[in-house]
Design a protein that fits this description.
The complex is a heterodimer of chains A (about 160) and B (about 500). Chain A has a two-stranded antiparallel ribbon with strand order 1-2. In chain A, strand 1 (about 25-30) and strand 2 form a beta hairpin. The radius of gyration of chain A is 24 Å and the shape is flat. Chain A starts with a helix and ends in a 10-residue tail after the last helix. Chain A has helices spanning about 1-25, 35-60, 65-75, 80-100, 105-120, 125-150; strands at about 25-30, 30. Chain A has about 160 residues and is an all-alpha fold. In chain A, helix 2 (about 35-60) crosses helix 3 and helix 4 (about 80-100) packs antiparallel against helix 5. Chain B has helices spanning about 1-15, 15-35, 40-50, 55-80, 90-100, 105-140, 145-160, 165-180, 205-220, 245-265, 270-285, 300-315, 315-320, 330-340, 345-350, 355-385, 390-410, 410-430, 435-455, 470-500; strands at about 185, 190. A two-stranded antiparallel ribbon of chain B has the order 1-2. The longest helix of chain B is centred in the first third of the chain and has 34 residues, at about 105-140. Chain B is mostly helical and about 500 residues long. The radius of gyration of chain B is 23 Å and the shape is globular. In chain B, helix 3 packs across helix 9, helix 4 runs antiparallel to helix 12 (about 300-315) and helix 7 runs parallel beside helix 20. Classes of the chains: A mainly alpha (about 160), B mainly alpha (about 500). At the A-B interface, helix 1, strand 2, helix 2, helix 4 and helix 5 of A face helix 8, helix 17, helix 18 and helix 19 of B.
Chain lengths: ~160, ~500
């Protein structure tokens, strides 16, 4: 089900690309216009995604066994996994929002440790200690490589 | 004779301290990446790109290439010791490597794999040295028409052969081609798909998409995977040294694997994994005891290991000489070369011999380093599999954050990378291949430029694309591959009707 939704979303996006490309202009005088190439890309996406949708529907409508096989092949993410993905993406989004104000180096150990908490299977004291150690060692390495070594102008924030 | 003097120059530069250090660090990291099942060479290269672009081009590419071919050595270690292929290209090694390991011959199996990797790599580097420069000279004859046809062929071959589901592969290719059009149109100067934002006017940075789709995507996708239970195998360090009897027994397989790997590696889309499958099948066919394959036959390790190393070097020939990548890893390397201010293609050998030959020189030094490092570091590499992802992935996420930010000092890029990470995750979950996205992204703008240049030359006449013999051959091959499923479908539909009266 998830796969079909995703493919359908791609179809809609491809239609948007084709429509926008038409607005940019497919042809200008004798040569191709700015919309020509994106239109080709959009058509390729639409035709291929449409084919994929049709093939998937036909495969799953033949009989129940094949339906079960199709469902098994649909490597749909589980809720627990989705939650961890959302947490990891959310943490990075929070980092992006806060880093210009708080400072990248200051925020990094908290970010790394929070990532560790999301990924760790359990929270024994020794594991937590290792997580803290990993967070601080990485921050130190990042400061040495990116700030001092490569001279990346990072937002200082509160520092 | 010119090749020898160029090679000598390349080797002398490759032996300088910065080049040796870059090669060493590259192959070391490659070995580690080859061992880790959760991360492949494309992800590692993508994450490294922002860091290496500040180095000298030859030093940067020596390191990047080292990661690529180093991963081929590393993949065998876990395949043999734990039965887990660290890389897809090490999959065939598991078939005979793990049974040998279970029989208590882990050291011997590792010794064969290391020696085969060295031989495969060495033969491929020698062929690379001999072929690359004359091939680049021949490719100088290619104009925009031939380049357009060649790029179409590369995209069709890579997309058709690279994924399991053609329709999904072409969706990914379309997405990559579209992403390449985001930003200002080079001919008319009008903005395309920038969604009213200033940041997208110059297009989307290649690194941002590569890191997002591969680096972040792989981490997110592995969150739902559970680590397999594995048992550590014991072996003596002395056993890692190859035996003369094994070498004499497997010399045919070493040679065949190296040649098959080289030929398949040069072709776009086929890749190192396909090379190992072909070479394994070939070795089994020529063997006097094919029944021993799959039960711990030394030939079953030698052949695929020689093939995957040979293929990894061969894949760099079209990249260096034509500027055309045939796989995700070489697409990222092409992105890296462009970021370093180099335009890979026929002129690279003519205009930048000071870059090309030292890089080729590092292939020789890197291959030697890998033999020593694999033997010395095998115990460490095997234990890397047991490092919990809870420690490893936060570090990788940190490198992603700092790496993406350091490209343009932009948090917008970082947001985009995360967006592409989510897309990469969905691609993996729903079995969409990521490689065509990168190929379309890298080759799309060049293809568009060549199409437009050709049409300007012909005053809008599309017949120009079939005005050259080479372009006709390339286009016919592409059309043949595209129409192949249609022929198969027709054959299936027509055959039963013939059979029934």
């Amino acid at each position: 089900m998830g796969e079909r939704l995703f493919t359908a979303a791609i179809c809609l996006f491809a239609i948007f690309i084709i429509w926008q490309s038409y607005n940019y202009g497919i042809l200008s005088s004798t040569i191709t216009g700015p919309g020509f190439f994106p239109a080709i890309a959009g058509i390729l996406m639409l035709v291929s995604a449409g084919t994929s949708l049709v093939m998937r529907s036909r495969a799953s409508s033949i009989n129940v066994k094949q339906k079960q096989q199709a469902a098994a092949a649909d490597d749909a993410p589980k809720w627990d996994e989705l939650l961890r993905v959302a947490l990891l993406v959310g943490l990075t989004a929070l980092f992006i929002v806060l880093a210009p104000h708080v400072g990248m180096i200051v925020l990094t150990p908290f970010y790394i440790f929070a990532c560790f908490l999301v990924l760790a299977p359990d929270y024994t004291p020794s594991r937590l200690l290792m997580g803290v150690l990993t967070a601080f060692l990485f921050t130190l390495a990042a400061w040495a490589i990116f700030d001092k070594g490569l001279g990346v102008p990072m937002p200082r924030g509160i520092l | 004779m010119e090749i020898f003097s160029d090679l000598f120059y390349g080797l002398s530069v490759a032996s300088s301290a910065p080049m040796l250090l870059a090669t060493f660090l590259g192959v070391l990291l490659g070995l580690a990446i080859g061992v880790l099942p959760a991360m492949g060479p494309p992800a590692a290269l993508a994450i490294l790109l922002p860091i290496v672009v500040s180095f000298q081009p030859a030093v940067a590419v020596a390191g990047l290439a080292g990661v690529y071919y180093g991963a081929m050595y590393g993949g065998a270690v876990t395949s043999i010791l734990l039965g887990i292929p660290g890389e897809s290209a090490a999959m065939m090694t598991t078939l005979d490597g793990y049974p040998m390991s279970k029989k208590g011959e882990a050291g011997r199996a590792l010794g064969i794999a290391t020696f085969a990797s060295f031989v495969g790599g060495f033969i491929a580097i020698v062929l690379f040295t001999a072929i690359a420069a004359p091939f680049a000279e021949f490719a100088l004859r290619f104009g925009p028409i031939e380049m357009t046809a060649l790029m179409v062929m590369t995209l069709v071959f890579s997309t058709s052969l690279g994924g399991e589901d053609r329709a999904k592969s072409f969706v990914a290719l379309g997405l990559g081609l579209w992403l390449g059009t985001v930003g200002l149109d080079i001919v008319s100067g009008s903005p395309r798909f920038n969604f009213g934002t200033f940041e997208l006017l110059e297009g989307i940075e290649f690194t941002v998409i590569a890191i997002g789709m591969y680096g972040v995507g792989e981490i997110l996708a592995s969150l739902g995977e559970t680590a397999p239970a594995v048992e550590r195998k014991r072996y003596a360090l002395r056993a890692l040294l190859p035996r003369i009897s094994d070498i004499t027994k497997t010399w045919k397989d070493l040679g065949a694997g190296s040649i098959i790997g080289f030929v398949v590696g040069v072709l776009p889309g086929a890749g190192a994994t396909a090379a190992t499958i072909f070479s394994y099948a070939f070795s089994k066919r020529i063997s006097r005891h094919p029944e021993t394959f799959g039960q711990g036959a030394p030939e079953g390790i030698a052949s695929p290991e020689a093939a995957n190393n040979s293929a990894s070097y061969a894949a760099m020939i079209p990249l260096f000489t034509l500027g055309i990548p045939g796989s995700g890893t070489t697409a990222i390397m092409l992105g890296g070369l462009l970021m370093l201010g180099l335009q890979p293609g026929p002129l690279l050998f003519e205009q930048h011999p000071d870059f090309v030959w030292p890089v080729i020189g590092t292939f020789y030094t890197g291959n030697l380093m890998l033999v020593v490092l694999t033997i010395v570091l095998t115990p460490v590499l095997a234990s890397l599999v047991f490092v919990p992802t809870a420690y490893l992935f936060p570090i990788v996420m940190g490198i992603v954050v700092y790496g993406v930010f350091s490209v343009n000092y932009s948090f917008f890029d970082l947001s985009l990378a995360m967006g592409f990470g989510v897309l990469g995750y969905l691609f993996r979950k729903f079995s969409y291949p990521s490689v065509p996205v990168l190929l379309g992204l890298v080759l799309g703008p060049i293809l568009e430029q060549n199409v437009r240049r050709s049409l300007i030359m012909s005053d809008g006449d599309v017949g120009i694309f079939v005005s050259s013999t080479l372009s006709v051959i390339f286009l016919l091959l592409s059309a043949g591959l595209l129409l192949l499923p249609l022929f198969n479908w027709a054959k299936v539909r027509l055959l039963p009707s013939r059979a029934t009266p």
